[in-house]
């Protein structure tokens, strides 16, 4: 073989390879991505010169072949791309590749300790991380080109000679180092190709079998993809996961190039919302599983793919966070997500409602964190309400979306899966709520944070025509504070924080004064409870609650004023623990309830008795305590002692009642 040249690669750092190897200690496997990327580039360059009419004849089917020779301990990557002439090898390999190697090391040292995303674009020399010897065998597409063979054993010395190769293209052969023999295992190579090269647009073969997918759906135009295509791609990316709720296809080339598909997953309580799940690609080459820097914080739980050549990849993560383009990309993503949600709200309301439970969390979190996003979505934030906004009865839920005359409220359709919320649930925006209720409760919002424990309170409001919003997702506590800042004139009260005057029957308190004691009925009841409960800090109030069905209203209710409750919630948050239910709460005794009325009659019988044991008086006390416990139950659970007392007292009361 004719020797063309023997020489040393001009680099300024003596023996660059040990440094490369050490710098990238954990990331050796990426050499394959780099070599396959070069092969894809070579094929694309050939296509370009062929389009330009510079190639005579057919260029054939482009492909990349990976071959393993366990005996020789070699791994080779062959492409039928553009190839290189001897001069090009000298220029691109000896000079370009190695000067970029040097540059990389300088950069790497400068940002020591800093993690660099995916060590992307390290290029040809990264093969020295795993190889003790690297050979290039190549034939350029140029007419009459001489094939050449280059080899280098890891020292700066190289050999360049003529090669008998007759096929256009390039073969890179690595003789693997002893400790890198894992790359002789076909399984390992398959796994690497699947990770890094799955969506590269050229078929990659191992032992004659194509092992990559090639098609990158995010590069397609959204018009060409069906719902099933998106779902299929999702299942491929995240096998064994529940179907995503919806997706956003990103597609822009100005002012930066960005493609991608982002999926809204169904949120799991155990999901780590600080850890991104989106895969970052650069020109269909996988770069990293982590690209938190590029995604707005509130969208981190999204899944899917983004692909951009405009994200700088060989910089530290902190540099990336501060990069202007990256910040603009993050803004763009937020905007696109907002647009998609608005579109869904406008065009597929029932679908929007179906997803709201999960999507709403993103939207609220985003509104809290991103002012621009907030402005975008503020009109599409919805709340489940107690209002009956349509005529449909629960037995015959409509099969399609029903809009009211105003066009601003709607009825949810029966969800296909059946596991969604109550099909008769209705939703409203805050704006519509305020508008609808402005006559009766201007600038006042009643809300419920727990449908089960606050059921009595909700029922009471509902029965008097007061509309209650359900704000029961974990983010809502913060979100209510946010809404209050946004709407300073609107007052938000939880249903159990106070009694609106609408709920109280002002006439019924029309008081009969007992001639014997000179006290009103209400005063007697209050005293009765004060004595029975003996809690100086408890504020006992008597009110006649309005009701259409006396049995459905409670005999008593515990109220915790909004301010007090929030203070307590804040303390709990800060101390990371449950804070005791404050003793300074309000007990409203419902003088209109038959139980309370019976109680006064009963106690009157006992009060006038002479001092000493009074069985009726004791029973009255027990019942008062019991009524209080029942009311308290809506606010807090029992501790062990409380539970024991409650059960014992229940039995005692029942026994006494049956004795009579
Ligand atoms: N398989 C190949 N076929 C043809 N030319 C190649 C091949 N591999 C490498 N080259 C040439 O060698 C040059 C240097 O490659 P190297 O991988 O170091 O850097 P790069 O591909 O230019 O950039 P990057 O750092 O993004 O990988 C390439 O630009 C290309 O001209």
Automatic annotation (TrEMBL):
Keywords of this protein's UniProt record, alphabetized?
Answer: ATP-binding, Chaperone, Nucleotide-binding
Q: CDD domains, from UniProt?
A: HATPase_Hsp90-like
Please report the stretch or stretches of sequence annotated as the Histidine kinase/HSP90-like ATPase domain: 27-180
* Presence of the UniProt keyword Transferase in the record: no
PROSITE patterns membership: HSP90
Under InterPro entries, the record lists: HATPase_C_sf, HATPase_dom, Heat_shock_protein_90_CS, HSP90_C, Hsp90_fam, Hsp90_N, Ribosomal_Su5_D2-typ_SF
What family, per the record? Belongs to the heat shock protein 90 family.
Q: What is this protein called?
A: Molecular chaperone HtpG
């Amino acid at each position: 073989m004719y020797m063309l040249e023997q020489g040393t690669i001009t680099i300024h750092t003596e023996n660059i390879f040990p440094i490369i190897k050490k710098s990238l200690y954990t990331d050796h496997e990426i050499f394959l991505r780099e070599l396959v990327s070069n092969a894809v580039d070579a094929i694309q360059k050939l296509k370009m010169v062929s389009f330009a009419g510079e190639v005579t004849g057919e260029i054939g089917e482009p492909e990349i072949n990976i071959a393993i020779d366990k005996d020789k301990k070699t791994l080779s990557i062959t492409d039928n791309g553009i190839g290189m002439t001897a001069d090009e090898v000298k220029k691109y390999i000896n000079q370009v590749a190695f000067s970029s190697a040097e540059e990389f090391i300088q950069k790497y040292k400068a940002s020591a300790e800093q993690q660099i995303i995916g060590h992307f674009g390290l290029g040809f020399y990264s093969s020295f991380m795993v190889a003790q010897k690297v050979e290039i065998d190549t034939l350029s597409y140029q007419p009459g080109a001489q094939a050449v063979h280059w080899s280098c054993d890891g020292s700066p010395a190289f050999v360049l000679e003529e090669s008998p190769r007759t096929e256009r293209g390039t073969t890179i052969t690595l003789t693997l180092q002893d400790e890198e023999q894992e790359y002789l295992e076909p399984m390992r190579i398959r796994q690497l190709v699947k990770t890094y090269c799955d969506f590269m647009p050229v078929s990659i073969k191992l032992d004659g079998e194509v092992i990559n997918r090639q098609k990158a759906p995010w590069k397609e135009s959204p018009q060409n993809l069906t719902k099933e295509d998106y779902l299929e791609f999702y299942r491929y990316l995240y096998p064994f996961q529940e179907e995503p709720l919806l997706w956003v296809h990103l597609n822009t080339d100005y002012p930066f190039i960005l493609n991608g598909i982002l999926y809204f997953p169904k949120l799991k309580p155990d999901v780590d919302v600080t850890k991104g799940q989106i895969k970052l690609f650069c020109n269909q080459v996988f770069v990293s599983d982590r690209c938190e820097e590029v995604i707005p914080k509130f969208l981190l739980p999204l899944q899917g793919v983004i692909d951009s050549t405009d994200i700088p990849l060989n910089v530290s993560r902190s540099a990336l966070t501060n990069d202007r383009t990256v910040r603009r990309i993050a803004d763009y993503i937020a905007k696109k997500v907002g647009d998609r949600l608005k579109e869904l709200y406008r065009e597929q309301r029932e679908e929007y409602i179906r997803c709201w439970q999960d999507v709403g969390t993103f939207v609220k979190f985003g509104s809290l964190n991103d002012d621009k996003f907030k402005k975008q979505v503020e009109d599409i934030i919805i709340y489940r309400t107690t209002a009956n906004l349509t005529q449909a009865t629960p037995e015959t839920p409509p099969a399609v979306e029903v809009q009211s005359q105003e066009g601003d409220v709607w009825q949810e359709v029966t969800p296909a899966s059946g596991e969604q919320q109550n099909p008769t649930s209705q939703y409203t925006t805050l704006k519509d709520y305020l508008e609808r209720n402005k006559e009766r409760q201007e600038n006042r919002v009643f809300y419920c944070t727990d449908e089960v424990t606050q059921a009595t309170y909700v029922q009471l409001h509902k029965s008097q025509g007061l509309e209650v919003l359900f704000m029961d997702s974990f983010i809502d506590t913060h979100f209510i504070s946010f809404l209050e800042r946004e709407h300073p004139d609107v007052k938000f009260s939880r249903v159990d924080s106070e009694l609106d005057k609408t709920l109280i029957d002002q006439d019924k308190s029309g008081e009969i004064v007992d001639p014997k004691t000179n006290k009103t009925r209400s005063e007697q009841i209050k005293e009765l409870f004060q004595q029975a409960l003996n809690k100086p800090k408890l504020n006992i109030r008597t009110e006649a609650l309005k009701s259409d069905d006396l049995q459905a209203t409670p005999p008593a209710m515990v109220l915790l004023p909004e301010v007090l409750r929030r203070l307590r919630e804040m303390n709990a948050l800060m101390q990371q623990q449950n804070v005791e239910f404050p003793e300074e709460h309000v007990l409203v005794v419902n003088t209109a309830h038959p139980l309370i009325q019976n109680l006064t009659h009963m106690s009157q019988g006992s009060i006038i008795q002479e001092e000493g044991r009074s069985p009726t008086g004791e029973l009255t006390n027990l019942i008062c305590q019991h009524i209080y416990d029942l009311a308290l139950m809506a606010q807090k659970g029992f501790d062990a002692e409380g539970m024991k007392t409650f059960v014992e007292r229940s039995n005692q009361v029942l026994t006494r009642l049956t004795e009579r």
